[in-house]
Structure formats: structure tokens, C-alpha cells
Amino acid sequence: MPNSKKEFCRSRRELIAGILPLCLISDVRFESLLFGEWGLPMQEAVFEEKIRQKQCATYEEAWGNRYGPLIDTLEYFSEQLGRDKVINILKKMNESILLNDHADKSGNTFDEFKKQVKSKAKHDYRNLLSVEFIEESPDVFEYRVSHCLWARTFRGKNAGDIGYAYLCYGDFMKAVFFNPKMKLRLTKTLMQGNDCCNHRYTWRD
Prior knowledge:
This protein has 205 residues and is α+β, with helices and mostly antiparallel strands. It has helices spanning 3-24, 30-35, 42-50, 59-81, 83-99, 110-122, 149-155, 160-168, 170-178; strands at residues 129-136, 140-148, 182-185, 197-203. Strand 1 and strand 2 form a beta hairpin.
């Protein structure tokens, strides 16, 4: 057999040998990887499958990787521009994001808001927060957060004030922009070093 044909066969065997194990551990069909799915070239299809594989990391490690570089960057800006200035910029950023949302929120109900919060606490944030629901009535909804991975991450890098401006401060605007009838009272936060976050929402018709 000419060398060119030998090289072609060997390359094809190596290609198949490299793809088959990936097929065996995933739901992607062999032909979809070989010829591409939804019009994707083979290499792009393989890459798309690779990046969907789960990493072995704890939530704490993941949050450190996610927010650590951000905290370091904001700390650097604080050194260059002044901490108070950076914190004010972060607060204004929160306000600006919500002010630019011009959707009509007048149809949002208090019951809908409570349902969303309880669902997130049970599902989305179940490994990130410890939440206790204190009071729920037609015009009051109060819950307390005793543990928060965001607060632990920021305070672990001595950046609780930055974390408050970047994350917690927006809760006040979010309440009003969910519906102008709703108001948040929040006098303590873990990010500021308190023993809990005491979110209390009231509704006035």
C-alpha cells in the first residue's frame, strides 16, 4: 500500500479511536460528532460536547474562582481611584441597570414575588444560602439568611463593603422595580458583618 494511503488509514483510525470514547460517555451520537450536528463541523461539535462536561469542584471553590478575580480587580481600582468612589460607582451601576429596564411592572403581584423567592431558595440557591421564612401575609413577606456563600467569598477577601455595593445594594431597587407598591426594609446583612440578612418586604395597595 502506498505511504499516502497508509497515512490516511492510520489518521482515520486515530480519529475514530479518539471520538468513540467520547461517544460512550456522552449522549452525543457517533455520527453527530463525525459529521457535525445542526450544521456544525466535526471539531466544533466535539468542542461543544467537551465544554458541557461537568467539572469536579465544590460550590465554595467555584465561587472563589468566579468572584476571586473580580474582587482583586475591584480592589485594584479602589487603590487607584479611592474605595469610596469605586463603591459609589458600583451602586450607581446597580441603579442604572434597573432604570434602563422600562418594562411595565405594574402587573406583578406580591404572591408572584413570594413564589419566586421561595422557589429560588429551594432550588437555585439551595447550596448557596441558608434561608428561614419568618412571616408571610397578604402585605408582609419576611425571611432571614443566616449563611451566604457570596458573603463568605467577599468577606474572605476583606471586601464585604465592595460585595454589599456590588450585590446587596441592588435589592432595594429590585423591590421597587418589581412593582412600585413593594418596599424592602433591610437593616442587617451578612456582607456587612451582621449575623443575618433580614429582608422584610411590605406591600401597599
